Amino acid sequence: MSSTTASPSPSARPKRLFLIDGMSNLYRSFYAIRNLSNSRGLPTNAIYGFAMMLRKLTRDHHPDYLGVVLDSKEPTYRQQKYPEYKAHRAPMPDEMVVQLPYLDRLCEALRIPILRLPHYEADDIMGTLARQATAAGVETVLVTQDKDLSQLVDDPWVSLLRVERAERETREVFLDEAGVLAKFGVRPSQIVDWLGLKGDAVDGFGGGWGIGEKGAILLLEQFGDLEHALAGWESVKRKAYRESLQKNADYIRLCRELARIDLSVPVALDLDALQVEEPDSTRAHALFAELEFAQLTKEFATAASQAAPSLSAPSVTPERASAAYVVRTTGEEMERAAEQLVSVEELTFRLHTNSRGELVGVAIATTPGPAEYWAIDECADRPEALRALATLLGEPRPRKVTHDWKRALHLLEPLGVELQGVEDDLLLAGYLLQADEGRYDPRSLTRQYLEEAEPILPPGPAAAAEVDRLGQVARILSGKLADDRIEFPYQQQTLAFVYREIDLPIVPLLYRMERAGVRIDPQALATLSVEMEAELERLSREIYREAGREFNIASPTQLGEIFEELHFEVSRRTATGKIATGRDVLEELSVRYRLPQLVIEHRECAKLKGTYVDALPELIDPADGRIHTTLNQTVTATGRLSSSDPNLQNIPIRTEMGRRIRRAFLPAEGCLLLSADYSQIELRLLAHISQDPVMLDAFRRGEDIHERTARAVFGARTPEELREKRRVAKIVNFGIAYVIGPYGLAQRVGISRAEAKRVIEDYYRTYAGVKRYMDELPDRAREADCTVRSLFGRRRRLPELRGKGAPRAGAEREAINLPMQGSASDLVKLAMRQVDEALRRENLQARMILQIHDELVFEVPREEIAQTSQLVKETMEQVARLDVPLVVDLGVGENWMDAKP
């Protein structure tokens, strides 16, 4: 039915229908939650995640109508039109297959209808029902991760609800027409054209060869729609796009039709059948008990026991439970509350935002006292509400606890609220205690550390209840950090030190670095883009010449077919018997064949061009002409900071293209860039932790450790021999720190495995202390509950240490390397904190703007270069006391590359 059907006036809030894309959400749950099964060994991760999603959706959004939509098992018209459609999808994992029967039982227990129709996909059923709902005056929310359904948002009564991740925290995002444009770069009405041009690898159709996602966006920006792009192919500047539009028009149109959702499925919208009902408590309790979902079993235990009529206690309604929490909606109420709350010793707060990231409320809890929620978006006098918030949060006292301090700084300071007095961040505390867990959002933390189930409440009281529970979690985490102990001989500190002296204090600095950003020269990148395009075309021609025909270089399947045709001898194949084409396989093949090396070069060039050269100019903030990355503290298990949106930590320095990208990073006017890089920090830490006498002596004497290894291991004597062997010695030194084996060393150095084995044996004879450390540490870790530590107490659990075979061997390699990697990350963060404090103490205008592994980059006024350089070097080299000296190399330049030491 047409979306132009007249709809009721929006003055009265329409009812809402939530349609859940069953398989999309089940897959998301399967991959988001790992290693969950019941005592009988049945995997339960997918069904658990799906159940929690359903409970959260009903609790948070109060749908009027609700249904779960599933695909048909029978072939659809798309397979008849295009047999390759979804033909090459990987089979569903066995661990997920065994959970499918529980999906029907779950929906039956929660009284949520399942909608499926033979020979039709879930997308088509959802699209048809959404159009019928619009005609009936009902809003539709499509709960899915599938981008295809974005095309339905061209109807203003239809929106998408997605789950996205930021810093390992999940959040819900509603996408309307503007949201689809911001997310995908095209309007909902252009989605099918976009998919037709770029293809969809998941569904098995390729679109226009060589166009890709960004190319499809550019073409639609130029022409508006697919047909105009096909008609105007001659005016397209880029040759690859032009040729693809000319030669692949019919296939592109076919791809578009495969992506188009069918809105005429023979299914009728039955709102009475979709009306939300209370769960069947008895069935829900039995199901969750069988699956051993403790929280959900407990949640339904009381309800199940009260399913029969009772003359005892009255039922507890959401309204009755809400009375325990206070919701404030006027500035006057908030100001009075702020004046009272500033006198307490400690408060826990959490900020709440809408889908656009705007502050809409704050939840506050104190002990003792009721938790409350300030609905700032409902306040008629928003400035008054913000003044109350500044009164409460803008002073050092009371002591404050929150979740994600850096996020709070980004939200509050632009509103004129100077957040002070934060002394605990539950995001960081939860991460430090379980660095491999990956889920540190408030709900995951409360679910993990509190036994009682979350109450089901309206949004305002629910936010107050959440922050009340977070206050309880804070006390639990504080106790666990305080109880941590020293477990390894080299270990100097505990987790409490990492939390209080390293991770927590640098939060304000990371916020300032993100706000500062870095200046980019877009013209230099534009010039480089043209050159890289020419290089890609040159490499493509050479690849086609070596292959004997043209093919899609980016397709692993087609590349594997070429290798088969050329009869390449390969050592690894995929589970389906096809030739593997990963980087390690290509490197192995490139020793004997030229084609794999050309493919490696093509992939690297294409990745750099797409990830940095073409993407960075689009990310420049027009307000200041700078790029603002996000620095994440809770992503890596080793404690290293990561960078995202964009990721600036993977720009290579050893290739000419990588160096030219770095030259596009510039200082502000009147400034220079200063780079301070720790020299061989992980090898110095290896010497300190292993106490190897030869390595300690080399570093204490200030020798070149690679030359020392060249002489001691490879017998180099003359200057010529030293030059020749130092390169290999460097690879061996750093490879040993990562527990490299003969195969890996042979690949990197270009020698036989027998020679590599002999080199490693000679190395261990020379550095016997390193060998002893590597032999003993896995056993020590197993004795410490499969836990390994950094020098400063950062820890990581590796349960695979008690396993067998390859998982155990991999865990042992990680255990050996973690003390160096974790300690290096701790040292760099300590240096960041101390250097920042020194700069501020000396009233210097220099500021830290980037952290890249062991390197800190500063933007420094020209007149401060000498003083800042001396201060940075002295501070970084004295940040910790080791048995070998820390050495920092400095460089200064007009751009990042020239500043590299």
Structure in words:
The structure is a single chain. With 901 residues, the chain is α/β, with parallel strands linked by helices. It has 5 domains: 257 residues, Rossmann fold; 157 residues, Ribonuclease H-like superfamily/Ribonuclease H (Nucleotidyltransferase, domain 5), CATH 3.30.420; 110 residues, Taq DNA Polymerase, Chain T, domain 4 (Up-down Bundle), CATH 1.20.1060; 138 residues, Orthogonal Bundle (DNA polymerase, domain 1); 76 residues, Alpha-Beta Plaits, CATH 3.30.70. Helices cover 50% and strands 12% of the residues. It has a 6-stranded mixed β-sheet. Helix 8 crosses helix 12 and helix 23 packs across helix 37. The longest helix has 37 residues. It is globular and about 90 Å long. The chain starts with 15 loop residues before the first strand and ends with a helix. The N terminus is likely disordered.
- Helical proportion, percent range: 40-55%
Q: Report the principal-axis shape.
A: globular
Number of separate structural domains: 5
* Largest β sheet strand count, sense and barrel closure: 6 strands, mixed
Report the mean per-residue pLDDT as an integer. 87
CATH superfamily of the largest domain: 5'-nuclease
User: What is the distance, rounded to the nearest whole angstrom, between the alpha carbons of the first and last residues?
Assistant: 66 Å
Total DSSP helices:
39
| C-alpha-based Rg, rounded | 30 Å
- Determine the structural class based on helices, strands and strand pairing: alpha/beta
Low-confidence stretches: 1-12, 307-322
Provide the CATH topology of the largest domain.
Rossmann fold
